[in-house]
C-alpha cells in the first residue's frame, strides 16, 4: 500500500519509521511530505492508495473530490478528532476513513491540568520575572483548587482522565454529558446549567459537533460563577471567541487556558514568528494577563505519539486485510 503522509514534522517521521522497521509492516510504503492536505494539495496524492492526515488539515468536500480522482481508497487520520473531514463525501465515493481513538487520554488531560496550573499560578510569568531578577510576587496570586468544584463537559476518555486528576487535587467533580457513563463513583452527573453555575473550574472535553459549536457563548458564560477558571483542550469552535473576550474584559474569569482556538487553522504547528499575523483574535487573547495559550499540543507526549503511529499503521494493515477493527468512521 502506497501512503502519502501529509504535513510531516520530524517527530512524525521519527515515530512512524521506528514502527515500520517491524517486518509485519513491509507492505506499507510511506512517502513523507511537508505540505498539509488541503483542496489545493490533494492532487499530490495521485497514484497513492492512501493518505495520512492530521487535525490541522482541510479534508472538506473539494479535497475529498480530488483524493477520489487520484484513486485514494483510504484516509488515515493520525488523530482522535475528525471534525475537519467531510465524512459524507468520503462515504459517497466509498473511501474509508479511519482514526485513532483514545491514543492517550492522559496526555491531553495532563496538559489541561498544566494549563489550569499555569494560568492560575502564573508559573510562566514567574519564570520570566526570575530571569530578570524580579523576585517580587506581584501579579502571581492564584487560588487553591483543593475543596473547589471541577465541572467536566464531556466525560469520555479524556474527560474521565481529567476528572481523576481533579479528584487527586481534592476537588469535588461534577460532569455533564449527553451519554453519562457512570464509570467513576466520585463523579456526579448534573445538567449543563448546574455545571455552569456550580463549577470553579470548567474543562471542555466534548467533541465539536453542530450541537456543541459555540457551546460557550455570552449566555452560557453569564451562567458561570464569577472568578471561574475555563480550560479548552478539545476544539476551538466550542467557544465563541468574541464572547469569551467580552467575558474576560468584564472580569468574569480568574483564568483561561486554551490549547485550541477558532483561528488555529493556518497557524497551528507553524513558526510564524517572523510574519505579521493576518488575524487579531489571538493577539487580543494573548494581551490578557490571565490567559494562557498553547498551540494544540495536548497530544504531544512520547507515549501518545507512539500509540498514534502504532494504531495508524495497524489501521492500514486492517484495511489491507479486509478486517474491520472498530476505528472506521
Ligand atoms: N488538544 C489535543 O491535542 C486533543 C487531542 C485529542 C483529542 N482532543 C479533543 O478531545 C475531544 C474528546 O476526546 P475523547 O477521546 O475524550 O472523546 P470521547 O469520544 O471518548 O468523549 C467525548 C464525550 O463527549 C460526549 N458528548 C458528545 N456530545 C456531547 C454534548 N453535546 N454535550 C456533552 N457531551 C457530549 C460523548 O458522549 C463522550 O462521552 C475530541 O473530540 C478532540 O476534539 C484534543
TrEMBL record:
Coiled coil: none annotated. CDD domains: LDH_like_2 (cd12183). Its EC number is 1.1.1.28. Residues 113-298 form the D-isomer specific 2-hydroxyacid dehydrogenase NAD-binding domain. Keywords: NAD, Oxidoreductase. One of its GO terms (molecular function) is NAD binding. InterPro entries: D-isomer_2_OHA_DH_cat_dom, D-isomer_DH_CS1, D-isomer_DH_NAD-bd, D-LDH-like, NAD(P)-bd_dom_sf. Residues 5-325 form the D-isomer specific 2-hydroxyacid dehydrogenase catalytic domain. PROSITE patterns: D_2_HYDROXYACID_DH_1. It is an enzyme of class 1 (oxidoreductase). Belongs to the D-isomer specific 2-hydroxyacid dehydrogenase family. This is D-lactate dehydrogenase.
Amino acid at each position: 500500500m502506497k501512503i502519502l503522509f501529509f504535513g510531516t514534522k520530524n517527530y512524525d517521521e521519527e515515530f512512524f519509521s521506528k514502527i515500520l522497521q517491524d517486518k509485519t509492516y513491509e507492505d506499507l510504503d510511506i512517502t513523507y511530505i511537508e505540505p498539509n492536505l488541503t483542496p489545493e494539495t490533494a492532487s499530490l496524492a495521485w497514484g497513492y492508495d492512501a493518505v495520512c492526515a492530521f487535525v490541522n488539515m482541510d479534508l472538506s468536500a473539494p479535497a475529498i473530490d480530488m483524493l477520489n480522482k487520484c484513486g485514494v481508497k483510504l484516509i488515515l487520520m493520525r488523530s482522535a478528532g475528525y471534525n475537519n473531514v467531510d465524512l459524507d463525501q468520503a462515504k459517497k465515493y466509498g473511501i474509508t476513513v479511519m482514526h485513532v481513538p483514545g491514543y492517550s487520554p492522559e496526555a491531553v488531560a495532563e496538559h489541561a491540568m498544566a494549563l489550569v496550573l499555569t494560568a492560575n499560578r502564573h508559573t510562566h510569568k514567574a519564570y520570566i520575572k526570575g530571569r530578570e531578577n524580579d523576585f517580587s510576587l506581584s501579579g502571581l496570586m492564584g487560588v487553591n483548587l483543593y475543596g473547589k468544584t471541577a465541572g467536566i463537559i464531556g466525560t469520555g476518555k479524556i474527560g474521565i482522565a481529567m476528572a481523576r486528576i481533579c479528584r487527586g487535587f481534592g476537588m469535588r467533580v461534577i460532569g455533564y454529558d449527553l451519554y453519562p457513563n457512570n464509570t467513576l463513583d466520585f463523579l456526579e452527573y448534573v445538567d449543563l446549567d448546574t455545571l455552569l453555575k456550580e463549577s470553579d473550574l470548567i474543562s471542555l472535553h466534548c467533541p465539536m459537533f453542530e450541537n456543541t459549536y459555540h457551546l460557550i457563548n455570552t449566555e452560557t458564560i453569564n451562567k458561570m460563577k464569577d472568578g471561574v477558571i475555563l480550560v479548552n483542550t478539545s476544539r476551538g469552535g466550542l467557544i465563541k471567541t468574541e464572547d469569551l473576550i467580552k467575558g474576560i474584559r468584564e472580569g468574569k474569569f480568574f483564568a483561561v487556558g486554551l490549547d485550541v482556538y477558532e483561528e488555529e487553522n493556518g497557524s497551528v504547528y507553524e513558526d510564524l514568528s517572523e510574519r505579521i499575523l493576518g488575524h487579531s483574535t489571538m493577539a487580543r487573547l494573548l494581551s490578557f494577563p490571565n490567559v494562557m495559550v498553547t498551540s494544540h499540543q495536548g497530544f504531544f507526549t512520547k507515549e501518545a505519539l507512539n500509540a498514534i503511529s502504532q494504531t495508524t499503521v495497524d489501521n492500514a494493515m486492517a484495511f489491507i486485510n479486509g478486517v474491520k477493527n472498530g476505528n472506521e468512521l
